[in-house]
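Module 6 notes. Inverse folding takes a fixed backbone as the condition and produces residue identities as the prediction. Think of it as a translation problem where the source language is geometry and the target language is the twenty amino acids. Below is one complete input and output pair. Work through it position by position during the lab.
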C-alpha cells in the first residue's frame, strides 16, 4: 500500500456535494482507502483564466494498492462520472477536478502523469489542505 494525496476542486454546480460524493466514490474502489479528508475552502481562481467562478478546494489522503497510472485512470473516470467534460480551455471551469498530487515519494514524468503535481508548491489552495492532512514539503510534519 502506498500513501497518496489527491487534490479536490470544483467551481461549477453543487460544489460541496460533488466533492463529498467524489470522495465517497473514490473510497468505494477496492484499491483505495480514504484515510483523511481536509476541510473545503473557497478560493479565487488562480492561473491563466481568472474570470471564472470561485473554486471549492480540498485534499484527501489515501492508502492505495493501485499503481500511479491506475489511480490516475480512476480519478479521470470519476471526473467523467460527475459530469466533467473536457471541451473548454485548459484550466477553465469544471464540475470536478481530481489531481494526483503525490504518490509515496515517487517522482514520475510520463505523458499525462507528472508526480509530484508540477504546480503543487506554488498553489496555496493545494498546500493548505495538504498541511491540514499533516503533509509538509520537507517530509516532516
Ligand atoms: N484549478 C485550476 C486552475 N485554477 N484555481 C483555484 N483556486 N483552484 C483550483 O482548483 C484551480 C484553479 C486548474 O486545475
Ligand atoms: Mg486536473
Ligand atoms: Mg487541477
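Target side of the pair, the amino acids:
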Amino acid at each position: 500500500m502506498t500513501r497518496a494525496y489527491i487534490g479536490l476542486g470544483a467551481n461549477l454546480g453543487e460544489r460541496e456535494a460533488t466533492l463529498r460524493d467524489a470522495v465517497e466514490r473514490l473510497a468505494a474502489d477496492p484499491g483505495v482507502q480514504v484515510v483523511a479528508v481536509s476541510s473545503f475552502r473557497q478560493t479565487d481562481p488562480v492561473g491563466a483564466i481568472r474570470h471564472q467562478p470561485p473554486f471549492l478546494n480540498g485534499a484527501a489522503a489515501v492508502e492505495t494498492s493501485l499503481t500511479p497510472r491506475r489511480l490516475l485512470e480512476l480519478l479521470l473516470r470519476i471526473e467523467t462520472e460527475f459530469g466533467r467534460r473536457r471541451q473548454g480551455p485548459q484550466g477553465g471551469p469544471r464540475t470536478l477536478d481530481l489531481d494526483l498530487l503525490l504518490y509515496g515519494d515517487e517522482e514520475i514524468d510520463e505523458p499525462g502523469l507528472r508526480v509530484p503535481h508540477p504546480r503543487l508548491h506554488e498553489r496555496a489552495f493545494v498546500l493548505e489542505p495538504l498541511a491540514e492532512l499533516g503533509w509538509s514539503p520537507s517530509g516532516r510534519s
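Reference fact for the lab report: Residues 68-81 form the longest helix (14 residues).
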